[in-house]
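Note to self: keep these together.
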Amino acid sequence: MNRPYPVAVAVLLASVLACPASASSASAQAILGCTTCVYLEPSPIITQLGDYTAVQVAVQNPLGSGVEGVVFAIVHDSRGQTVANSTGALNVAPSSNGTATILIFGLALGTTYAATFYVVSVSGVNISPSETVNLIPAQGSSPANEGAPLGTDTFALGVTSSCPIIGMPCETYTNASNSTIYGVAYLVLHNSLAQTVDISTALIVLSSGQELTVSMPIVGANGTASEFAVSVDQFAISTTAVANFQL
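Structure:
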């Protein structure tokens, strides 16, 4: 069982908010004067899955059209320094509520951080007020895999011709084991100099034989990507594929 090589996390600079960062309920739309905004619920659900802190963010969409985008989580320590920048894909129907799951890795257990969340459309425009909450990672147990041997043949990585969210790369995984597996899909994007320019992750929970296509939350991916999956305790559970993206 091999662990994947560590990769440097590229910290993206947040663009200037298109919507004022104040109230977070749908009823505040008229006050904000934003006709394209969605709104984040103030209390995300936080779960520790192995080495990852999973944050489930609820989103209200008061608009008459569906919204596709990326929810950002920018994490700061007590000095105000940025220590993590993670993303989750969002696809919510018109006049509905939806959720985005964001995986954060590398935070010190028992330490208080400030996590700021906001939504960016697939065209790169910010479309929500921001929400900031305290985040204290705690030690969590890895979900039981019912004794399944984990190796690079646990998840079969395939290529898909269509993505659930337009404007984002996606990956298809099939669970080839006989157990339910909690895994993390990775897409590591490189430029023409083979430098890492973005990293995307997505939680994937598959029962035996189940197939799933997941959107990888990178807006306007352009370059060569390495794609693979690991378990939530960082064991490699798929081979590595290489793909070119021009989105």
